[in-house]
């Protein structure tokens, strides 16, 4: 273990000090026949970035101090990495096609914060979350200097930082390479790590071992492609909280609007109506800031395909198993709920007809890199992590009081997550600052969120 003296200041709120850093390796070596893990077509085409997720836990008094939680966390992480062996490997920094499952391990850092958890949660801005993460590994950003890279000859897929508040509370921040996993996979890993911590910490041994994750063996292929880029345009991310009661009101409004238009939609989901509201508000803001000129665009809805294939995949399949539904709007009429939601439901039905992951690869392989990047850049991107058990990640200290994604996202994107206590949906909205200013004052948006 290495003691570190780096000090990072969160705006004007509190002082953040890195106190230790080490590598956690799997408790058992990876078998020789699993030493090479080939990345799938979607893995290689995925964004070359890190998934940043953080959970906050108050001091429950179970441990004398927050630091006493660390040894069980390290031990359980070591055990969990034996199951998630690619996460402890290394892969090439540019256009990776496989993971060398060499058991070199994940990074594990500790930091101290000179404020209480409650003070932080009351006063923080979204960008303040970034400093909880190892080396600033948030989306495509990294402030890790080359000479501080523990092993500079390859990418370390997983990095974790446990942040100790003065009150004994903790924030566990985790960054995982998108080349190895999507959001579904990441949440499974975090829950399994938490369950393993409870199992190893329990004197009664009443907790069962988590079910093994499912890694699909793929044949080797090399796209020689580094993945889509997020872009470098300046953007700002803000959280909007939509309570269940307000979402129900929005669903009733959508039903009434579509019935009045003669295209009734009687069964809109929570995510569908929020997608429409967010997109409508963002497009209206962009139009206003473009001298009133409407620009054809659309929404790319990232969709978990595990349960949608005709030949369904196990829910705990680890990797990238998503596709993007494009709902395009060529004029302002197509932004209306009857048009937008009808097209969204049509796309969902089409996705239900895809046979298996190999069929999906065939569809995606017909899209050129240039066309794919152009489509990626031209639409608003929407992702839902709702019902992903993010508030069930319990290391034995109780469930988190806050669980969220950090970082400025891709410009023109929305991420939906369960709100605390499942009382609604929290949406992270990332837009250009001028568009976000308009959205924040949109009376219809404000009517349905806190």
UniProtKB/TrEMBL annotation:
Protein name (record): Transferase, Chloramphenicol acetyltransferase-like domain protein
Pfam families noted in UniProt: Transferase (PF02458)
GO MF entries: acyltransferase activity
Record flagged with keyword Acyltransferase: yes
UniProt KW keywords: Acyltransferase, Transferase
Family designation: Belongs to the plant acyltransferase family.
């Amino acid at each position: 273990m290495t003691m570190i003296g780096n000090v990072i200041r969160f705006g004007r709120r509190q002082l953040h000090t890195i106190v230790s850093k080490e590598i956690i390796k799997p408790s058992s070596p990876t078998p020789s026949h699993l030493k090479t893990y080939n990345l799938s077509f979607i893995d290689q085409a995925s964004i070359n970035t890190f998934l940043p997720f953080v959970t906050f836990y108050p001091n429950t008094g179970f441990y004398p101090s927050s630091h006493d939680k660390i040894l069980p966390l390290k031990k359980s992480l070591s055990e969990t990495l034996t199951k998630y062996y690619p996460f402890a490997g290394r892969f090439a920094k540019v256009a990776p096609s496989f993971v060398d499952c060499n058991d070199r391990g994940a990074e594990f850092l500790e930091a101290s914060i000179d404020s209480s958890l409650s003070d932080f949660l009351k006063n923080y801005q979204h960008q303040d979350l970034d400093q909880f993460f190892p080396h600033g590994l948030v989306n495509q950003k990294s402030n890790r200097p080359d000479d501080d890279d523990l092993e500079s000859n390859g990418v370390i897929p997983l990095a974790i930082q446990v942040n100790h508040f003065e009150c004994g509370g903790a924030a566990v921040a985790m960054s995982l390479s998108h080349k190895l996993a999507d959001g579904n996979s990441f949440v499974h890993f975090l829950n399994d790590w938490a369950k393993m911590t409870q199992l190893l910490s329990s004197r009664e041994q009443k907790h069962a071992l988590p079910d093994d994750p499912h890694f699909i063996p793929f044949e080797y292929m090399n796209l020689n492609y580094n993945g889509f880029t997020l872009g470098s345009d300046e953007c700002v991310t803000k959280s909007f909280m939509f309570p269940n009661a307000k979402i129900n009101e929005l669903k009733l409004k959508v039903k009434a609007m579509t019935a009045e238009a003669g295209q009734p939609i009687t069964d809109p989901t929570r995510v569908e109506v929020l997608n429409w509201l967010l997109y409508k508000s963002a497009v209206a803001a962009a139009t206003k800031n473009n001298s009133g000129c409407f620009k054809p665009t659309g929404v790319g809805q990232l969709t978990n395909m595990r349960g949608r294939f005709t030949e369904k995949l196990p829910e705990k399949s680890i990797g990238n198993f998503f596709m993007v539904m494009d709902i395009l709007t060529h004029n302002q009429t197509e932004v209306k709920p009857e048009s937008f939601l009808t097209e969204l439901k049509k796309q969902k039905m089409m996705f239900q007809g895809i046979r298996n992951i190999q069929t999906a690869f065939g569809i995606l392989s017909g899209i050129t890199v240039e066309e794919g990047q152009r489509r990626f850049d031209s639409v608003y991107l929407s992702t839902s992590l709702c019902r992903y058990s993010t508030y069930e990640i319990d290391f034995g200290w109780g469930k988190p009081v806050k669980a969220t994604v950090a970082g400025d996202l891709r410009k023109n994107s929305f991420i939906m997550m369960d709100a605390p206590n499942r009382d609604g949906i929290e949406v992270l909205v990332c837009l250009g600052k001028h568009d976000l200013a308009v959205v924040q004052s949109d009376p219809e948006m404000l009517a349905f969120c806190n």
